[in-house]
Design brief:
Elements lengths: L1 E5 L3 H9 L4 E4 L15 H13 L3 E6 L8 H13 L4 E4 L2 H10 L5 E3 L8 H9 L4 E3 L6 H13 L3 E5 L1 E2 L11 H6 L19 E2 L2 E2 L13 E2 L4 H7 L3 E3 L1
Parallel strand pairs: 1-2, 1-12, 2-3, 3-4, 4-5, 5-6, 6-7, 7-12
Antiparallel strand pairs: 8-11, 9-10
Length: 241
Amino acid sequence: MELLAPAGSMTCLHAAVAAGADAVYLGCDAFNARRSADNFTLDDLARACDFAHLRGVRVYLTLNIAIMPDEISAALELARQAWRRGVDALIVQDIGLAAEVRRALPDARLHISTQMNTHNIDGVRAAAEFGAERVTLARELSCAELAEVTEEAHSLNMETECFAHGALCICYSGQCYFSSIHYGRSGNRGMCAQPCRMKYTLYEDGNKVDTHGEYVLSPKDLSLIDEVNTLADMGVCSLKI
């Protein structure tokens, strides 16, 4: 299986490659879900691809936010320029952008982001209609569900990718509006304020409820280190950190 690591900066890219990642995912200045990271310019991206490829590591560009109608041309142009600079795949959330990438860049490798909320067989079939080579499955799936959708993906000549380590959101992937409502910063636009990571006190009928801790809305981080062989047996192609 592929080990896929994040690279929020050139330093992080070097660290991921040195640590043995088979591939990295990273964003440019805009249109990615980690807008607060250092991220890359297009010139940086070319150097990043050269560095990674010389060491046998693939580079995936994240275009994994909802795209507004007046942004589609700019997002598509970023995809085009990134593809010219050597990225190995484009990770896309927005359905419209996915369709445009397939139309304008038929040779580009298209990966469906977990933010597209693919959690069942119908979602996998929809990704196949876009011509996607890989779908990153929603983090909320059980092992049985992972196995079912992976089998369907393979029947459609697609790979599946799943998160193996990292933060686990309380809401469905790509469907959270908590940050938008509270702070006017959309998690689906790469600007999540992470209100679910804050401390809360729960009251019922005016009485404080014992929640066994103050982080009521923050699940424990996802850690599947003990399930790697199970995921391999299912046919999952990539483990994402």
